[in-house]
Automatic annotation (TrEMBL):
GO terms for molecular function: ABC-type oligopeptide transporter activity; ATP binding; ATP hydrolysis activity. CDD domains: ABC_6TM_TAP, ABC_MTABC3_MDL1_MDL2. This is CBN-HAF-7 protein. Residues 198-215 have a biased composition (Basic and acidic residues).
C-alpha cells in the first residue's frame, strides 16, 4: 500500500511538472487568457530568443524528467546504493534549475511587456518548486531511507574509505601498493607499525564499546535534538524571560535603521534642529532600552545555562551510577569522566546560545527580506540567487562536522582516559619504569585528537572561505545590478542605499546562521554519547527488587549458567547448582580462572545469570530490595578500595545513621582500634586516595569493619588475606575468626590450609561444582581434584610446618 502511494506520488510529480510547464506556455499574453497557439509557437525553434522565449523552462522540465528516468533505471537495476551516492548530483541539478529560472525571470523583466504575462510567473514558480522537489521525491519514493540516514551512510563510507586509504588498506582489508612497498623495503618498522596499528585497532574496538552500542541505538537527528531541547527546556521560565527580552531587542534592532534614516532625512529636508534633537532623543531612548534588555537577558540566560549544566551533570552521573557492572567492564573511567565534565557542558553552554542566535537572526532575516523586496524585488532575487548553493554546502558541511566533532570528543575522552589510568596507577608506572611508554601512549592518543581537530579546522576554514566568496559575489551583483537599475531609473538612489544597508544586516544574520549550523552539529556530535548514557536502561536494574525479607543466610544456586556480557560466547558457569547453608562456612576452591570469583559476583548481583536462579532464603535475589540485600550480604575483597575520607567515614560508608558506638564495636572486632588508637588523629586520620596512606593489613581490617557495621548475615571473603604478610595475616584472620561466628561465610582461598576447617568445601572446576564435602570427606577421594591440590600444597606446607614447628595460621 505504502509502495503504491509512493509510486503515485512519483507519477503525480511527473504529470504535474509536464502539465503546468505546458499550460503556462499558453499564458504568454497579457491577462489570464489561455492561448493554445502560444504553446505551439514556443516550439518554433527558429524564433527562439533567450530574452523572450519560455523554451528554457521546457528544457528544464525535460532535464527533470530525464534525470528522474535515469534514477528509476538505476533503482530498477538494483543499484539504489549507487543512486544514494549520486544524490548530490540531483541536489546540484536542483540548484542549477533554480538559478536558471531566476535568471530567466530577471531577463524577462528587461522587457516590461513580458512581465504582464501570467505564464512567466507560472513557469518561474513551478520550475523553482519542481527542481527543488525532485531530489526530495526521489529520496522519498525511490530510496527507502530517510534523508539523514542516507547522508550519514555516505559520509561514514567516505570517511571509512579515507581512513583505510590513510592506513594503507583497501576496504577489504588488503594492503595497497604503497604499504606493500614499505613492507618490502623496511620490513622491521613496517611489521612493528602494522602490529601497532593492529593493537590500536583492538584498543579502538574496546574503547568504542559505547560507540558500538550507541550506533545500534542511535536516535534520528530530530529525536536527538528534541532530547537536547528537553534537557534545556526544564529551565523554560528563565529561557522564556531571556527570549522575550531578546524579542524586544530584535524589534528595536529592526526598526532602528528605517526610523533613523526617516527622521534624519526629514530633519535635513526641513532644516530643523528641533527634529534633529527629537531624533537623537529617540535614539538615546531606544539604545538605553536595548542595553537594559540585553543586560537582564544576559543574567537570565547565564543562570538558565548553569542550572542546565548542573542538571545534566547530575543526571548523567546518576545514570552512570545506575548502570550495571558490565557497563563499567566496557567503558573506561577516564572516558566517562570526559562525558560528565566536557561533553555535558557543551550542551548547556551552546544550545541556549544557538536558540538565541537563531531567534535573533531569523528575526533579522524575515524582517529584512520583505523590506529588501519592497525596495527592489529584482535586486532581492538576484541577491538570493546563490542562496541554495550556500544551503547545500552548509547541509553537507554540518553532517561532516557532526561526525568529526563526535570523533574529536572520542579522541579527547581516550586521552583523558590515559591520564586517569596512569595517574591512578602512578606507583605501578614508576616501579616498572614505564614513564616513557606512558608518555608515548599519551602522545599517540593526543596526536589522534590533534589530527581530527586540525581536519576540522581545515574544513571549517574552507567553508568560511566559501561563504565569504559567495557573499563577495553577491555584493558585486548588488552593486552591478543595483547600479544598472538605478542608472536606468528603475530604482531610486536612496532606495539602493537603504537596500544595501539592510543587505548588510541580512548578511550578518546569514553569516551567523552559517557558523550556527556547524556549531549545532558539533553540539549534536558531542551530545550523542551523553544522551545515549542518560537514556540507557541498565540490563540489570538494581531498583526493581522490593522485598525486604528476614535473612537467615541460606544461599542456593539453581542450575545457573553465566557468561560475561563482554564475552558472551565464553561460558564461565555451566549450570551450577549449590546450596550454602545458613550459619555455616563454605570454602570455594579450584584452579584459577574456573569461576570462583564469578560466583561471588553473582551473589553480589553485579551480573545476572543467563539461566537458572539464585535464591536467598527462598527469595530470588533480584526481587530483594537493593539496600536491604546489601546490609545482609557483605564482601571483603582481596584488594579493598578505600575512599579518600577519614577512617571513620570509611567504616561508616553507606550507613546513614551509623553512630560512633557502632563504629567502635566493629573496630574492636576487626582489630582496627588497635592501630587507630596509636594514630595522632585517631579515626579522623585520612586514608588517602584509594587508601594509599594505609598499609595492606590496615586497609583489610578497615574493610572488614566496613563490612561488619552492617551486621551482615552473609560474609563473603574473596582471598581476604592472600596479599598480606604473616603478621598482618594473623591480625586479619583473627578478626575474621571473630566475625565468622553465627554467620554464613563464603570464602575463596588458594591456600588450602586456610579452608581446611570450613564446614563444607566446594571444588569449582570449569564452571561447575565437581566435588563437595568437608576436608576429611574430600581427602578420601584420591582421584579427585581436591585431593590432588591438597597433596600438592601439603607437600609444601608440611615442609613449612616442619621448619616452623607450628601449623600455619588457620582462621576457621
Ligand atoms: N569482568 C569480566 N569480564 C569478562 N570476563 C571475565 C571477567 N572477570 C572474569 N572473567 C573471566 O571469567 C573466567 C572466570 O574468572 P573468575 O575470576 O571467576 O575465576 P576464579 O576461579 O575466581 O580465578 P582466580 O582464582 O584466579 O581468582 C576467567 O576466564 C576470566 O578471564
Amino acid at each position: 500500500m505504502r509502495n503504491l502511494i509512493l509510486k503515485l506520488l512519483l507519477l503525480l510529480h511527473v504529470i504535474f511538472d509536464v502539465t503546468i510547464t505546458l499550460i503556462a506556455l499558453g499564458f504568454y499574453s497579457p491577462g489570464w487568457h489561455f492561448n493554445l497557439d502560444s504553446i505551439f509557437s514556443t516550439f518554433n525553434f527558429s524564433r527562439y530568443s533567450y530574452w523572450t522565449s519560455p523554451l528554457d523552462y521546457v528544457a528544464l522540465s525535460l532535464l527533470r524528467q530525464v534525470s528522474l528516468l535515469i534514477a528509476i533505471i538505476i533503482v530498477r537495476r538494483g543499484k539504489s546504493e549507487k543512486l544514494k551516492k549520486w544524490m548530490l548530483i540531483y541536489d546540484i541539478l536542483g540548484i542549477i534549475g533554480y538559478m536558471i529560472a531566476v535568471l530567466k525571470l530577471l531577463i524577462f523583466d528587461e522587457t516590461p511587456e513580458n512581465m504582464k504575462y501570467p505564464g512567466v510567473y507560472m513557469n518561474t514558480g513551478s520550475s523553482i518548486f519542481l527542481t527543488f522537489s525532485l531530489p526530495f521525491v526521489i529520496r522519498k519514493t525511490l530510496l527507502n531511507k530517510k534523508n539523514g540516514d542516507v547522508e550519514y551512510e555516505r559520509l561514514n563510507e567516505n570517511q571509512e574509505n579515507s581512513t583505510n586509504v590513510e592506513n594503507g588498506t583497501t576496504s577489504n582489508g588488503t594492503s595497497n601498493g604503497t604499504s606493500n612497498e614499505t613492507a618490502t623495503s623496511t620490513s622491521t618498522p613496517s611489521t612493528s607499525s602494522s602490529s601497532e596499528s593492529t593493537e590500536n585497532k583492538k584498543d579502538e574496538e574496546e574503547d568504542d564499546a559505547v560507540t558500538k552500542e550507541e550506533k545500534e541505538k542511535r536516535l534520528p537527528l530530530s529525536k536527538h535534538l528534541w532530547q537536547i531541547v528537553k534537557l534545556c527546556g526544564k529551565q523554560w521560565k528563565w529561557f522564556t524571560a531571556a527570549y522575550s527580552l531578546l524579542l524586544i531587542d530584535c524589534i528595536l534592532n529592526l526598526i532602528e535603521p528605517a526610523l533613523y534614516s526617516q527622521m534624519m532625512s526629514t530633519a535635513i529636508q526641513m532644516k530643523s534642529f528641533d527634529i534633529l534633537k527629537k531624533a537623537c532623543l529617540v535614539l538615546a531612548i531606544v539604545q538605553f532600552s536595548e542595553a537594559t534588555c540585553n543586560t537582564v537577558r544576559y543574567i537570565c540566560m547565564q543562570y538558565a545555562e548553569r542550572l542546565t549544566a548542573r542538571n545534566i551533570r547530575i543526571g548523567l552521573f546518576k545514570s552512570i551510577l545506575h548502570q550495571d557492572i558490565s557497563f563499567f567492564d566496557e567503558n573506561k573511567t577516564g572516558q566517562l569522566m570526559s562525558r560528565i565534565t566536557h561533553d555535558s557542558e557543551s550542551i548547556s553552554n551552546s544550545l541556549p546560545v544557538y536558540i538565541e542566535t537563531t531567534t535573533n537572526n531569523l528575526f533579522m532575516l524575515f524582517g529584512s527580506a520583505p523590506i529588501m523586496f519592497y525596495y527592489s524585488w529584482q535586486l532581492s532575487i538576484s541577491t538570493f540567487i546563490t542562496f541554495p548553493i550556500t544551503l547545500l554546502m552548509t547541509k553537507y558541511y554540518g553532517l561532516f562536522v557532526e561526525k568529526l566533532s563526535e570523533k574529536e570528543n572520542d579522541a579527547t575522552a581516550v586521552s583523558n582516559e590515559t591520564v586517569e589510568e596512569v595517574l591512578s596507577a602512578i606507583r605501578t608506572v614508576r616501579s616498572f619504569a614505564a614513564e616513557k611508554m606512558e608518555h608515548s601512549r599519551y602522545t599517540r592518543n593526543t596526536d589522534a585528537w590533534f589530527k581530527i581537530s586540525i581536519k576540522s579546522v581545515i574544513v571549517g576554514t574552507f567553508y568560511n572561505y566559501f561563504w565569504a566568496t559567495m557573499w563577495n559575489i553577491e555584493d558585486v551583483v548588488i552593486y552591478l545590478y543595483g547600479g544598472y537599475l538605478t542608472l536606468n531609473g528603475r530604482m531610486a538612489p536612496e532606495a539602493l542605499l537603504t537596500y544595501v544597508f539592510y543587505h548588510w544586516r541580512l548578511h550578518a544574520a546569514l553569516n551567523a546562521f552559517s557558523s550556527l549550523f556547524s556549531d549545532v552539529m558539533k553540539t549534536i556530535g558531542s551530545s550523542r554519547k551523553v544522551i545515549h548514557i542518560m537514556n540507557r536502561h541498565p540490563e540489570l536494574d538494581y531498583e526493581v527488587g522490593t522485598e525486604t525479607p528476614e535473612v537467615v543466610g541460606n544461599i542456593i544456586f539453581e542450575d545457573v549458567e553465566f557468561a560475561y556480557p563482554t564475552r558472551k560466547t565464553a561460558k564461565v558457569l555451566n549450570g551450577i547448582s549449590l546450596s550454602i547453608e545458613p550459619g555455616k562456612t563454605i570454602a570455594l576452591v579450584g584452579p584459577s580462572g574456573n569461576g570462583k570469583s564469578t560466583l561471588v559476583s553473582l551473589i553480589q548481583q553485579f551480573y545476572a545469570p543467563q539461566s537458572g536462579q539464585i535464591l536467598l532464603d527462598g527469595t530470588p535475589v533480584q526481587n530483594i530490595d537493593h539496600h536491604h540485600y546489601h546490609t545482609k550480604i557483605a564482601l571483603v575483597a582481596q584488594e579493598p578500595t578505600l575512599f579518600s575520607g577519614t577512617i571513620r567515614e570509611n567504616i561508616l560508608y553507606g550507613i546513614e545513621d551509623g553512630t560512633d558506638e557502632d563504629m567502635m564495636r566493629v573496630s574492636e572486632m576487626a582489630n582496627v582500634h588497635e592501630f587507630v588508637s596509636k594514630m595522632e588523629k585517631g579515626y579522623d586520620t585520612k586514608c588517602g586516595e584509594k587508601g594509599v596512606q594505609m598499609s595492606g593489613g590496615q586497609k583489610q581490617r578497615i574493610a572488614i569493619a566496613r563490612a561488619l557495621i552492617r551486621n551482615p548475615r552473609v560474609l563473603i571473603l574473596d582471598e581476604a588475606t592472600s596479599a598480606l604478610d604473616a603478621d598482618s595475616e594473623s591480625m586479619v584472620q583473627e578478626a575474621l575468626n571473630r566475625c565468622a561466628r553465627e554467620r554464613t561465610v563464603v570464602v575463596i582461598a588458594h591456600r588450602l590450609s586456610t579452608v581446611r576447617s570450613a564446614d563444607r568445601i566446594a571444588v569449582i572446576e570449569k564452571g561447575n561444582v565437581t566435588e563437595m564435602g568437608n576436608h576429611e570427606e574430600l581427602m578420601k577421594n584420591e582421584s579427585g581434584l581436591y585431593y590432588k591440590l591438597v597433596s600438592k600444597q601439603l607437600g609444601l606446607d608440611v615442609k613449612k610446618e616442619e621448619k616452623e614447628e607450628k601449623p600455619i595460621v588457620d582462621f576457621f
